[in-house]
Write a structure and sequence with these properties.
It is built from two helices and four strands; from the N terminus they run βαββαβ. With 78 residues, it is an alpha+beta fold. The chain starts with a strand and ends in an 11-residue tail after the last strand.
Length: 78
Amino acid sequence: MILVNSAMMQKEIIQLLEENGFKHTKKQGLKLFFETPTDDATTDAAMAKQLIKGSSFGAAVFFNVSVVWVPGASLLSV
């Protein structure tokens, strides 16, 4: 699971990532949580960051992307 922090363009970020295989699961204030399309959350977080940066609105948005560990989820890579 990844977390995208952004105060602006949240709907656009959700739409962009969902079009690219991510699944929006929860919104908590500035935090947007997504299930990743593969089991490699680190690579998927980097991909999400590049997708947002490369979008038409990406240059104007202050955001960050991080990997989130979910209690009860299995860790597939160490």
